[in-house]
Fold each of these.
Amino acid sequence: MSVMTEAATISESTARFLQQQHQLLINGEWVDAASGKRFDVVDPANGEVIATVAEGVSEDIDRAVRAARAAFESGPWSRITASERGKLIWRLADLIEHHLDEFAEIESLDNGKPRAVAAVADVPLAVDLFRYMAGWATKIEGTTIPISVPYMPGAEFHSYTLREPVGVVGQIIPWNFPLLMAAWKLGPALAAGCTVVLKVAEETPLSGLRLGELIQEAGFPPGVVNIVTGFGETAGAPLAAHPDVDKVAFTGSTEVGKLIVKAAGDTNLKRVTLELGGKSPNVILPDADLESAIPGAASAIFFNHGQCCCAGSRLFVHRNHFDQVVEGVADAARTIKVGPGMNPATEMGPMVSKIQQERVCGYLQSGLDAGAEAVVGGHRLGDSGFFVEPTVLVNTKPEMSVIQEEIFGPVVAAVPYDDPEELVSAANDSIYGLAAAVWTRDVSQAHKLARKLQAGSVWVNCYNVFDASLPFGGYKQSGWGREMGHEALELYTQTKAVTVQL
Ligand code: ADP
C-alpha cells in the first residue's frame, strides 16, 4: 500500500481565512482569550501548522456563559418570536450552503477527510439539519389536559403545558465531523430558544469559527451563540462544571462522557445528553446479497477513515461465506486511494492527529500480539502525515481489545458464526449500543434481528444512513438522549404544567 502525496492548491478565500488572527466569539464579538494564549492547528496530511487559534480556559468559559445567560434572560433573543427564530436558523443554512466549497476545504485541511466527501456529506447534511430544525421552531407546542382532582369535587380547572427552552446550554463536540456535529448540537438548541456556549474540538476548531462568522452575518443577537476554542480539560471541563449552565450536550468518548456526568452531579445537576462511543456489529446473514453486502461492509468501516462512532467495526459473517466476504472487504481495502484530503483522487485521508494515529496503531499491535491476523493492512502508512492502512483483522477472540474497545480507525474485525442465536449474543456482547446493521433478503429475519440488536440505530441492507429527521443515539454506554429528529428538540425544552381554577 502507498500513500499519495500531491494535494490541490487552497482557494484564495480559504487561504485568507486560515491566516486570520482567530479569536473567541463571546457576546457577539471576536475577542482574544483572557490569557492571550494561542495554539496551533495542524494539517494531518503533512503535520504542518495551518493556523493558530485562541486558547480559551475557564475564565473565557465563564465570560461566555455570562453572555449566554444575559442573552437568554433579557436580550432580544428572550423576546423573539418563534417564526423569527426559525428564519434566522434558515438564513444560517443558506449562508453555509453558499459557502459550501469553502467549508469542504476547511474541513479537509483541518480534519484530513477528502474534500469531495465533505462537499457531499458533512456540509449538505449540516445545511439540511439547520433547515429541518428551522421548521420546528414554530411547532413546539404544549397540550391541554382535562384534569379531575378527585379531592376537590365540583371544582373546575383549565390545565395546559408549556414547552420552554432549557436555558443556557454548553455543547462540547468532537473532531470527526466538526461542522456537522456543531449543526447537530446548535440546530435543536436554537430552534428551542436556548442560548449556547459551544466548545469545538481542539484538533478541528476551524469550521466552527467560520460558522461563528456566518452566525454573526445571519443576524443572531449577541450572546445567543458563543464559541470557545480550547482543550478538553481546561475549556470543556469548566463548561461541564459551570454552575450557571442548565444543560450540557456532549459528543465524544465514553470515558469523557462519564466525567461530564460527574461534573454535572457535583455542581448543579444540569441536564446531560451524551452521544458516545460504539463498537457496532455489522451482520451478514447467509441469504444476503453479497454484491451489496461486501461493499456495504467495507464502507461501513472505511467511511471517514473509521472515525465514526457508529462505524461497523465488528463484522459477523456466516461461516459459509466468511472467506468470500473477508476477501471482498480486503480487496476493497487494497484499492482505497489513501492520500491528503485535498487531492481530488483521495478516498481516505489521514487520521486526525498523531495521537489518534498512534492510538489506532497501538490497538493494531495489541491485536496482532494477541494472535489476530491482518488479512490486509495492520500498520501506519507513509513517512509524513498521520495515515494508517485500511485493515481487516481475522482470528480475533472476544476478549481482545480490538473486539471490545472502540478503535476509531479504519480497522474491521471479521468474525465467523454458525448459529444465529449465538450471533445475537456475540453482536450484543459490548458495553456499547450505538448502531448495528443486518444484510439479508429475508424481511422477517431483518425485523426480528432489528428488535434483538441492542442499538439506537439499526440499518438493514445499508449502513451510515442519516437524516435530520431520524433520531440518532445510543443504548447502553453509547449515550443518553438522541441527536436529530424531534427527540433532539425535546431534550432542549422542559415542560411546565399550568393549572388555573375557573
Ligand atoms: P477523543 O478522545 O476522540 O478526542 P474526547 O472525548 O476526548 O474524544 O473529546 C471530545 C470533546 O470533548 C473535545 O471537544 C474535547 O476537547 C472534549 N473533552 C476532552 N476531555 C474533556 C473533559 N475532561 N471535560 C470536558 N470536555 C472534554
Amino acid sequence: MSENNLLSKNSAPHSDVEQIKIRSNYLRGSLEETLENRITGSIPEDDNRLMKFHGSYMQDDRDLRNERAKQKLEPAYQFMLRVRAAGGIVTSDQWLMMDRVAQKYANGTIRLTTRQSFQLHGVIKWNMKKTIQEVNASMLSTLAACGDVNRNVMCNPNPYQSEIHGEVYEWANRISNHLDPRTRAYHEIWLDGEKIVDSRDAEEQEPIYGPVYLPRKFKIGIAVPPSNDVDVYSQDLGYIAVIEDGRLVGFNVSVGGGMGMSHGDVKTYPQVGQVIGFIKPEQAVDLAEKTVMIQRDYGDRSVRKHARFKYTIDDRGIEWFVNELQTRLGWNLEPARAFHFESNGDRYGWVKGSNGKWHFTMFIQNGRVMDDGDYRLMTGLREIAKIHTGDFRLTSNQNLIIGNVSAQKKKKIEELIKDHGITDGLHYSALRRNSMACVAFPTCGLAMAESERYLPSLITKVESILEGVGLREQEITIRMTGCPNGCARPMLAELAFIGKAAGKYNMYLGGGFAGNRLNKLYKENIGESEILDSLQTIIPHYAKERQHEEHFGDFVIRAGYVKEVRSGQDFHA
Ligand code: SRM
Ligand code: SF4
C-alpha cells in the first residue's frame, strides 16, 4: 500500500502527528531507547505522542513549575498512567494492585475517571516499566487508554437489574476486545515480549486501524435506560439498550457525539449524538468495527481540532454516514425503538440486585481516592478489597460501586465502611451528589483554571444559596473543567463552568438533566463573586417560579436566561 493510501481519503496535507504515527512502525518509535535515557526525566515530543497509545502522558507538576525555573531546574517531569477496564469493572485483587502501585510508584492517590478508568499521577520515568508490568500482571492494561484509537468502552454499571447488566457488560467487553490495537509494540516495550521483525502487511498487523490508526480518539458507551449515566449522547458511538419483557433485545444506535472545543474558535463545538436506528445485540461488534473504519477512512487527518468523528458526520451529513455504514455492513438498521432517560447521575447507597447480591454505590468527590483526616477512603477500600469476593465498579460519574456483595459479607463490609468514615454521600446536598470536575491543576498540561481542587468549595457557597430557598435536595447537575476540552462532559450539565484563566470561568446554563441537551454560554470570563451574584438571582427565581418537577436546566431556558441548544452547530450562535 502506498503512504497516501495508508492515510485518509482526504487529500489535504497530513498533520505532524500523522507523520509521527506513520514513522512509528506500529507505535514503537524510539520509545524503548528514550525510556532508558537517565539524563532527563522527560521523553522527546515524538515519543510522547506515541506514549499516549500506551496509556500514558508526560506531565510536569505545574505547582512547582515557576520555582524550578527560577532554580534553573528542568520541570518536575512525571507521567500520568491510565489503566482501563471495559465497563469499569475490576476484581478485589485488581483493586489491591492499583492501591499498591499508587503508593509504590505514583503520588499515593488513585483517580477514578469520567470514563470508568483509573489514573495514577506522578510516576517518574524510571518507574514506568515496573508499574505497567504490575498492571498487566493483574490482567489490566494501559494499552489504548489514550491515543488515536477506540478508548475505554463505557457501560452502565447498573446494580438494579443485575442480569441485564451482566449481558450488556459482556457486549461492552466484546466490543472493547475487538477494537484493541493488535500491535506487538506494547508487549515488546513494556512486557519484555519477544521482538518481532514483521513482514506481515498493514492489514494483517492492524486489520481495523491500519498503520496510522485513527485520525483522533474514538469513544463508545452503552447506556441502559432509564439511566443515562454513561452520557450516551457524548459518545462518538453510543448504544442504548432496549429491554422488552425483561430481555435485552438490542440497541438503539447513536452516532457523532463529542464534547471538546477551543475557546474563541467557533469551528469547534460540542455535539450530541443522533439516534440512527436499532440493531440486535449480535450486530453490535460488527457495527462498531465498520463505524470505526469509516472514521479511519474519512476523518480529517490534516487539522487535529477537526478530526473527531462528530465533524466527519456534520460535514458529510447523517444520511451519507448511514448509507456508507449500511453498505459496509451489508445489512440495514431497523427503525429506532422507544426509550426514555431519567437522569445521567448515580444512585447512592445499598441496593439488592435481582441476583440476590448487594451493591453499595458511594459518592467520591471528583473521583479522588485518598485518605483525608477521618475520611480514610483509600485505607477503607483496601481493607474491603481484602475480604470482598464480588467486584468493584467504577461509574461514569467518578464514583464507585462495591458490587456483588453476598448477604454474609454485607455486615462486615458495612462495618469497614463505617470504621473508615466512608459514606454513601446521601448526607451531601443533591447538588454535590450530582457534581463532577476534571483533574486540571497541577497535573494537566492543558488546564487554564483550577477544577478538581476548586469545585468542592464553590459548591459549598452555591449550597447556601440553595438552602436559603429550600432547594438543598433539588437535584441539579453541576460540572466544571479547567479548559474547554470537556473531560467532565460539562457541556451536558445544567450548570457548568469551563476554565478560561486562573480564577476565571465561562458559565453555562441549560443542559438537560438526563444528559440529553447541550447547555449554552450565559456569562463569559467571570470569577467567583460574579458567579455567585448570578446564582443569587437565578436560583431564588427558580425556587419561586418553577413548574411541578421542572428541572433547573429546563427552567433557565423557559425563563429566558439562555436559548435552547438543539445541535452543537448552534452552540455558539
Ligand atoms: Fe480528557 C485530554 C483527563 C475524559 C476530552 N484529558 C486530556 C488530558 C490527557 C490532557 C492532555 O491532553 O494533556 C487530561 C489528563 C489530565 C490529568 O492530569 O490527569 C485528560 N479526560 C481526562 C479525565 C481523567 C478527566 C477526569 O477528571 O476524569 C478523563 C479520563 C477518561 C478515561 O478514563 O479515558 C477524561 N476527556 C474525557 C472526556 C469525557 C468522556 O470521554 O466521556 C472528554 C470529552 C468527550 C470527548 O472526547 O469528546 C475528554 N480530553 C478531552 C480532550 C478534547 C478532545 C477533543 O475532541 O477535542 C482532550 C485534548 C486532546 O485530546 O487534545 C483531552
Ligand atoms: Fe485538563 Fe482540560 Fe481535560 Fe480538565 S478538561 S483534565 S483541564 S484537558
